[in-house]
Amino acid sequence: MNSANTARSISYWTGKTVIVTGASSGLGYQLAAAFQASGANTVLAARTEATLTAAAEKLGGRAGRVLPVVCDVTRDADVENLVARTIAEFGKLDCLVNNAGLSVRKRVIDTTPDDFRELMELNLIATVRCTRAAMPHLLPAKGHLVNIGSLAGKSAARYLGAYPASKFAVSAYTQQLRLELGPEGLHVLLVCPGPIARDDGRVRSPEELAGLPESARKPGAGVKTREIRPERLAEMILAACEGRKSELIVPWKARILFTLQQMSPRIGDWLVRKMT
Fold first, then answer.
1. How many angstroms separate the CA atoms of 160 and 175, rounded?
2. Which residue of the set 12, 29, 159, 163 is catalytic?
3. ω into residue 251 within 30 of 0, thus cis?
4. pLDDT on residue 207
């Protein structure tokens, strides 16, 4: 981030309070780092205490305050505790980032109702749960709600099991919130990124990839676009919040596919096959 952007971000975020779910690694951690470096009080939420504590300690020497809260976003009590701890510590909430989620690799015909139910619970229902818990504080603050979607939440792709359906639902839910609560002052941002680079060495198990073509083993199930650095995406999300934008699609050229998909599903499907 250049000096001008740093000054702009610090002037905007200093003293604000932000919750980031799924904050112990990947994009969630980079978002927490970006908010905290910009002067915000940052609440890190994740399920695993050890990795969450390690992430909070890495941020300990930066500007702003850090509060790690162990939270399983699929549990009502955990989410209620997350918001209550935030308000008790900082007295307010200005931004919620619904980042926690999961992607899978599977043929859709092999994806069972239970598979769909499990992924919907984490990718959609948890977003609904966190949003509802935070709204009594976000709305009076005229704050920010950021839902991390996916390119697959705008145009489905092959070998992603229940993932596109769950992310399409996140896209629809985000639009509903924007339409209903935007006029009341809430900023609602949908982020639809392509494959995000990972530095943690995570690989998918042979069992998960069994029977799938080689392309499905690659990031984004083989989508032909450069991986996005999570720290760069985090900067873009902060800037989109400051500009109160409705959507952030990365890479931007994916909008062409989405437009063509609506105009002609046949052409859209052909392009998806060519791009993955």
1. 23
2. 163
3. yes
4. 67
Per-residue pLDDT, 275:
74
Tokens in use for 28? 């969630």
Active site residue 173: no
Q: Which domains does the chain have, with CATH numbers?
A: 3-275 (3.40.50.720)
* Structure tokens that stand for 43 in this block: 């609440």
How far is the CA of 140 from the CAs of 92, 127, 228, in angstroms?
Answer: 10, 20, 34
Question: What was the pLDDT predicted at 8?
Answer: 46
Consecutive 10-residue averages of pLDDT for the chain (276 residues): 48 95 96 95 97 93 84 98 98 98 92 97 98 98 98 91 96 98 98 86 63 66 76 97 97 83 82 75
